[in-house]
Design brief:
With 275 residues, the chain is of the alpha+beta class. It contains seven helices and eight strands. The termini are far apart.
Length: 275
């Protein structure tokens, strides 16, 4: 990317960050790299044929709105769901913009965090952090949709994935903020001291997880992925009280690099720490 074409406001990246990243581009006199990969992860990423370029970062300070609903029934709080989606996407896009400034093919070891701030009501910071990498093999287009791929796989998992003939397309996610209905006093008293399932709670958690999973799968289908690896399905209470929870699913969409790839057979490994 040419330096003169970069617009900090358009990218959503501070001007100082663009200047720092431009100085770290390959071929520059000060082109050292930074990374949050561990030593083992760094060495395996290099062994896989990728070179770390720098730690990249995306942030969005977001005001999460208020939604009023019927608290006596199970329901998705779509306004809150939309906010959690949009803020994470902003952070991810800015992280990718930083990687593009570095001329990267992808970002590995991505972490997505949310932290509600004390300096304002319902204000949260959404952060995406990872290590931008450049492939040694320039005969393959490693990018996805014209932008650096993203992956939350560890360096070890990234190496194993590539050794098996697969490559990451991008991180995919699905979210659902769900209100779980309050039980009436009579119903609660009726269950007192008994072993019994509470269908209204079971259905709510099932429904919310299903919505999050189906949205993540829809993102992977849009990338034409073969599958999603390393999926995590989280229940995040945030600050909305015991009856409102965000169900968040995230993973890395992958595709085969070639049709005739061979998957190596697993081998037994004995860690030296056990002796």
């Amino acid at each position: 990317m040419a330096e003169e074409t970069l617009d900090p406001q358009q990218l959503g990246v501070p001007e100082d960050a663009i200047k720092r990243l431009q100085e770290m581009r390959p071929g520059q006199s000060t082109s050292l790299f930074t990374s949050d990969l561990s030593v083992n992860e760094f060495l395996l990423v290099r062994e896989a044929g990728f070179r770390p370029l720098g730690l990249v970062f995306g942030s969005s300070i977001y005001h999460v709105g208020i939604q009023v609903g019927r608290w006596s029934s199970n329901q998705e709080l779509d306004k809150l769901t939309s906010a959690m989606y949009h803020a994470r996407e902003l952070a991810m896009e800015r992280m990718q913009s930083e990687a593009e400034v570095l001329g990267a093919d992808g970002i590995v070891g991505v972490r997505l965090d949310v932290e509600f701030k004390e300096f304002g009501n319902d204000i949260a910071e959404f952060i995406a952090v990872g290590t931008a990498v450049k492939a040694d093999d320039t005969t393959i287009n490693w990018q996805s949709g014209g932008r650096p791929f993203t992956s939350d796989l560890s360096g070890q998992d990234f190496w194993t994935l590539l050794q098996s003939g697969y490559a990451p397309l991008g991180m995919v996610m699905g979210t659902c903020v769900y209100h779980i209905a309050h039980q009436g006093m009579l119903k609660s008293m009726g269950n007192f001291g008994q072993n019994t399932e509470i269908p209204v709670f079971t259905e709510a958690l099932y429904d919310a997880r299903e919505l999050a999973m189906s949205r993540m799968q829809a993102e992977a289908e849009a990338l034409h992925a073969e599958g999603i690896v390393g999926v995590k399905l989280l229940a995040l209470p945030h600050q909305w009280g015991g009856h409102t929870t965000e169900f968040f699913s995230i993973g890395t969409a992958v595709h085969p690099l070639r049709d005739n790839h061979i998957i190596a057979k697993p081998q037994m490994v004995l860690p030296l720490t056990d002796f």
